[in-house]
Amino acid sequence: MAYIDFLSAIHKSTKRDYIARVTEYPKATAAELAKKFDYDYWDGDRKTGYGGFHYDGRWRKVADALVAHYKLEPGQRVLDVGCGKGFLLYDIMQAVPGIEVAGIDISSYAIAHSKPEVQPFLQVCSATKLPFDDNHFDLVVSINTIHNLHCYDLDSALREIERVSSGDRYVCVESYRNEVEKANLLYWQLTCETFCTPEEWQWWFDRTGYTGDHSFITFE
């Protein structure tokens, strides 16, 4: 298991007003809407989610980094757990023609509005019970997803990610290292259910037997 940062360049490119997040609109209402993972979360107002989750090519740099690090080749299989609209998988397909991709997401809205090129390879289901055989994929990734699960489902999801990969695994989750980052995370998040320090995340990895790589998103 290694700490590998594929995401900070994208994460840090977004400007965030943490105070406005909790003063301009009722936070509880925003969270209730966001947790439906429907239109309001993906394509509604920024106060309840992404404010319009559209393909703009920004995930290509992440795709290229994953391809280079894990030495992905045509014919190999990649699964994205929490794939959203499939932008990362689309970029992986562009980077490695002939690679096989699959994605799952709890949001039927995201799958219905996914990139047409990858939509046939995506399906709606929970990360807690992946509909794939043991050791089916060469790489399984899950980016900014499993922290949205309650602890009992987080346990299952990490075990499932471990189970369906015969090779590599990579998980990125939200975390905090001090009280400032903790407050900012609480202010900004809309869907997070598991709030852990890096040390606590390591406890989860050890508990579930997760042996893959990981990184953390923090709100500085």
Characterize the structure shown.
This protein starts with 7 loop residues before the first helix and ends with a strand. The longest helix has 14 residues, at 151-164. It is an alpha/beta fold and 220 residues long. Strand 2 (100-105), helix 7 (108-112) and strand 3 (122-124) form a beta-alpha-beta unit. A 6-stranded parallel β-sheet has the order 3-2-1-4-5-6. It has one domain: Vaccinia Virus protein VP39 (Rossmann fold, 3-Layer(aba) Sandwich). 38% of the residues lie in helices and 16% in strands. It has helices at residues 8-12, 18-23, 27-34, 39-42, 60-70, 87-95, 108-112, 151-164, 179-188, 198-208; strands spanning 77-81, 100-105, 122-124, 137-143, 165-174, 213-217.
Uncertain residue ranges: none
Tally of helical runs: 10
Q: Mean pLDDT, rounded to whole units?
A: 97
Report the span from N to C terminus.
Answer: 25 Å
CATH top level is Alpha Beta
Under CATH, the topology can be stated as: Rossmann fold
Q: Could you give the count of β-strands? A: 6
Helical residue percent?
A: 25-40%
Largest sheet: 6 strands, parallel
Structural class determined from secondary elements: alpha/beta
Q: What integer value in Å does the Rg equal? A: 17 Å
Shape: globular
Report strand %: 15-25%
CATH architecture: 3-Layer(aba) Sandwich
SSE pattern = HHHHHEHEHEEHEHHE
CATH superfamily: Vaccinia Virus protein VP39
The number of domains is 1
- Order of strands in the sheet with most strands: 3-2-1-4-5-6
